[in-house]
Design brief:
By secondary structure, the chain is mainly alpha-helical. The chain has one domain. Helix content is 74%, strand content 0%. The chain has helices at 23-37, 42-84, 95-106, 110-122, 127-137, 139-180. Helix 2 crosses helix 5 (127-137), helix 2 packs antiparallel against helix 6 and helix 3 crosses helix 4. The longest helix is centred in the middle third of the chain and has 43 residues, at 42-84. The radius of gyration is 26 Å and the shape is elongated.
Amino acid sequence: MRVFPKDLGSLFAKRPIILGETTEAYDELLSKATAAVDPTDILEAIWVKDIVDLIWESQRLRRLKAGLLLTARKTALERIIQVTDDPVSSIMRDRSELQTLGSRWLEGEVDAHAEVAAILKQRGLNLDSVMAQALSDKLIEIERIDRMIASADARRNKALSEIERRRESLARRVKSEADDIPG
């Protein structure tokens, strides 16, 4: 008899969904993982649910890390321009003008992108410089997120190993019993 999470009622009713995520995407991942592992009993079904939750958490953390870097771009751009600004030939000395440019740049305005690219080029920099500054500004948070991702991935791998170990043990028992059958 195969056991599928939908057959287990309330045990699988709760989904670890946060704002911006969909139950449909989670359910699709759970369904695909269940089909791939093909749990044979309640323990394996629980491990599959744990594995899916850990995959979901790991992917969420990766998205959040990317989002953190994206939100840090504006501040990083402002800092780079201010730090590298030459007071004698300054293009941008007014902080509010710089903040407005940063906002327009983030909104995707073509003129703002061209202006930012020109300012960065004048200083021997590029968009990678902005992202490097954003990374530097958020490095502690990113390292923390990376540790959380590594932890979720390690727990997922352990659950997968438990299923494999359990199945190998069962296969050995069945083989042993089959060998004991007179024939």
